[in-house]
């Protein structure tokens, strides 16, 4: 938990941004996975953590903009709870730890909400994403669970996005801590990426590293020799020489800030010429895109720079042809690079995505494209100091997509399908780093995780 002054200042700024009304932040509940007392590991709602910082289930926060009051609600534990859980701070003590003077039980929360509704005052809340929260809000607000999301406050969404997008020094330190854990996860995975090893062995080991460092993985581990499937969570393949292993993973800190790093390595530790040729193109796109990051530059422009770098590289190998600028403008490169360059990073690995991707990554100046590939760009708007985002270009050979485009004679003037056919057994390569936008440019956060061909081969030989 940060200092209480951090949460006081965040809520004070939120009141200014929203202007009027009552702001309701429901915390998350425990969720059982086979019987009521056997629950999944608890994860608090990220926006609740941002403004109230209390990491426990069945609590809620309220910010009364008009009365300039903050509330924290929850039920104190009884003796039966103490037997199983040990002594716990009271709700009043927890509220005081984050600068909240007004505290009460969940019954008091219900009374406050009902009185607010009777007075006809506006109640702001963010789009809920858990079934238990929807049912709780139905009970409190009198809105059917199926309709609750329709009443989410756009004013509150925009205010929260504005605040959470810019990370302060404490948040950046937490993200760097999460990247430090990712360093050990990735370098360990590189050492284990040998022929005959089953993917799940490596996935299990690196998830264990995340847990041993204080938090879970920040999202389900993506680790596969079938990297042409962008989010492949199956871990049952046996590693074979001549295959590339995509390792896309990160960790959460105890305060739930995240990292998200991808490295792609050759099984056995030595790049073949074909692997190196493709890898170097992706690496160049990654590094050029990072160097282009600075305030006021639209991230869409950085994405298109990466796309052009990939198209030119593939043209050099004979996989693409024609004018590179025309190819990228038409979207022909998306056969190989069908996703966006990156996304915001913070308390969520796709930071604030649950509030609406267009609110986070787009604005009145830059709207989402409907072009295949470019449409999947999560972050497009102008960069600002304090933004933390991922930069993750890739090249993939997706047989079903190649087959469909070839059948449609799509972009024949830009794609050499006969050459592409020779790569259908290749898989995919992605390289991802977490980058802070600074006042004058950028800073790649955390411990440098090997990504050049020479450095990866060195680590995989067990050399430091």
List the defining traits of the structure above.
globular, 2 domains, 15 strands, Creatine Amidinohydrolase, alpha+beta, single chain, 464 residues, Creatine Amidinohydrolase, Chain A, domain 1, 39% helix
Give a description of the structure:
There is one protein chain. By secondary structure, the chain is of the alpha+beta class. The chain is built from 16 helices and 15 strands. It has helices spanning 4-18, 46-52, 79-85, 91-97, 106-118, 131-141, 154-165, 169-192, 199-212, 273-291, 299-316, 324-330, 357-361, 399-407, 417-420, 453-460; strands at residues 22-26, 32-35, 38-39, 59-64, 69-74, 102-104, 123-124, 222-224, 244-249, 261-266, 388-391, 394-396, 428-430, 433-437, 442-444.
- Give the count of helical stretches: 16
Question: Which sheet architecture does the biggest sheet show?
Answer: 5 strands, mixed
Radius of gyration: 24 Å
Overall outline: globular
**pLDDT below 50 for ≥5 consecutive residues: which ranges?**
none
Number of strands: 15
Look at the structure and give the CATH class of the largest domain: Alpha Beta
Output the CATH topology of the largest domain. Answer: Creatine Amidinohydrolase
Question: Roughly what percent helix?
Answer: 25-40%
Structural class: alpha+beta
- Biggest β-sheet: strands ordered side by side in the sheet: 6-5-4-1-7
How would you name the CATH homologous superfamily of the largest domain? Answer: Creatinase/methionine aminopeptidase superfamily
Overall mean pLDDT: 96
